[in-house]
Structure formats: C-alpha cells, structure tokens
Design a protein that fits this description.
Elements (H helix, E strand, L loop, with lengths): L6 E4 L6 E2 L3 H12 L7 H6 L5 H8 L7 H19 L1 E2 L3 H11 L2 E9 H10 L8 E5 L13 H10 L7 E5 L2 H9 L4 E4 L16 E3 L2 H11 L31
Parallel strand pairs: 1-4, 1-6, 4-5, 6-7, 7-8
Antiparallel strand pairs: 2-3
Helix pairs in contact: 1-4, 5-9, 7-8
Length: 253
C-alpha cells in the first residue's frame, strides 16, 4: 500500500483534449464519402468516446460490410487535419503540471487506438506529462473490447504498479465511470465533455467538476498524498509511455 503511487488516470477526447469538431466532422466526411446518411449533430457528438466501430453500427446504422472502409476514410481525414485542429481544454496543462509536481503519477486510458492517442498527445505537447498512455488496439475495424474500457484502465494500473485504492479516474462519459468501477476506482466526471443530457447525473460518481481547478481540488480531496508519493515526480517514464512514434496514415484513426 505505501509503495503504491497515487495514480490519476485521464480519459482523452472530451476530458483532456477538445476535438474541436475534428471527430464529428471526420465521421460525417467518411459517411458522405460512402454515400451514407449523416446523423444529426447531437448523435455525432454522442459518438465521441465509444469505439468508432460500435458507434458506426449502433448510432449511424452503417452496414457491417461497409464499416472497415468508413473507418479507413475517417482515419486518413483525422490524421491529415483533425489532430492539429484539436486543442487542450482550458487549464488542462496547468492541472497536469500541478498534479505531477505534487507527486501524482499520471496516465491516460482511452478507447482511441493507442498509437494514435500517443501521436495526438505529442502534437498537443502533453505527452511528456504522463507516466504512461494506454488505448485500444490499433486495428479499429476489430470489434470493440469485450469489457469496454475496463482492460485499458487495468493496463494503466498494472504498468504504474498502482493499487485501486490509491488511484482515481477522470472522464466525461459513462464509459469512463464503468471502466473505473470495474477496477475498483472512484470516478471524477468533467462537465465540459460529450456526455448526453442526464448521463452524468445517472452515474455513481465521486465528484462532478466544472473546470480544471475543481478537478485538481477533487483529486487532492479523494486521493491525498503521503510522504512517499512525492518522490514519484523524479521517477523515470514507464514502459508504455508516450515516447513519440511514427504512425502510418492507414493504420490508426
């Protein structure tokens, strides 16, 4: 217990980074390119967070045999323009610096393909603030992970040698809360993301926060540091971290 770092696990899109329409616009582009109807804006917004394959089938009624081609078109569009269009939410850089300097370990757990998550965080200048970055398999045409976000959160715990009772999840959707609960973690929900009306109110959350400062306050309240955790600031970046890697345009979204 005393050797376990205090770990804060962040979701990515809708929590750390505002896609600024790059995800929804890319999905609309890919659907149009294949002669498929584009859902309304609210439905497109609800597609931010879950695995793309799941959203295309469940929310856009894309036939199974067309899904791989739509995903491929989306990936190319997102890599060529979408990642640079995205922006960290206000106060996020300061929040990460605040927590890291205090002695927390920081990780990312996202259902975005892992290599793409690393590339996005590198482009936004956030990658070096995290001890590790975890995502879904890079082949996004595969069915979603059977346990949703749970195994991705579990990977963050394992790589950081963190105990659930010394960890917390921060996210904007019910998938984040479910992944946290499956691993015995409390979840802090941010209200600036892509949750549907009433979605957060229906969840068993440790806190709901309206800005980055409140998120930091909630972390410090739920996960107070002991004397040993401060030394974690100087720890080397762990395996599975955000070292920049080349990403092929046809291999991830």
């Amino acid at each position: 217990m005393t050797d376990s770092p205090a770990l804060v696990i962040f979701d990515l899109d809708g929590t750390l980074v505002d896609p600024a329409g790059s995800i929804t616009g890319g999905i609309a582009f890919a659907l149009e390119a294949h002669g498929l109807p584009v859902p309304d804006a609210a439905t497109l917004d609800s597609m931010v967070g879950p695995p793309l394959v799941e959203s295309l089938a469940r929310l856009a009624d894309v036939p199974a045999e067309v899904v791989p081609a739509v995903v491929h078109a989306y990936r190319r569009r997102y890599i060529s323009a979408g990642m640079a269009q995205s922006r960290p939410y206000p106060g996020i850089r300061e929040l990460l610096d605040r927590l890291r300097e205090a002695g927390y370990h920081l990780a990312v757990a996202t259902q975005k393909p892992e290599s793409l998550a690393k590339k996005l965080l590198t482009i936004q200048g956030l990658d070096s603030r995290f001890h590790s970055i975890h995502g879904a398999p890079d082949d996004e045409t595969l069915p979603p992970l059977a346990d949703g976000k749970a195994s991705i959160v579990a990977a963050a715990l394992s790589v950081n040698h963190a105990a659930p009772e010394r960890s917390v999840m921060i996210g904007d959707r019910r998938h984040d809360a479910a992944g946290a609960a499956a691993n015995g973690l409390p979840c802090i929900a941010v209200t600036w993301g892509f949750a549907e009306p009433g979605e957060l109110e229906a969840l068993d959350l440790a806190a709901r926060v309206a800005d980055a400062r409140e998120a930091g306050d909630a972390v410090e309240r739920l996960l107070p540091l002991d004397g040993r955790a401060v030394a974690a600031v100087a720890a080397p970046v762990l395996s599975g971290s955000a070292d920049p890697e080349p990403v092929e345009a046809d291999s991830c979204r």
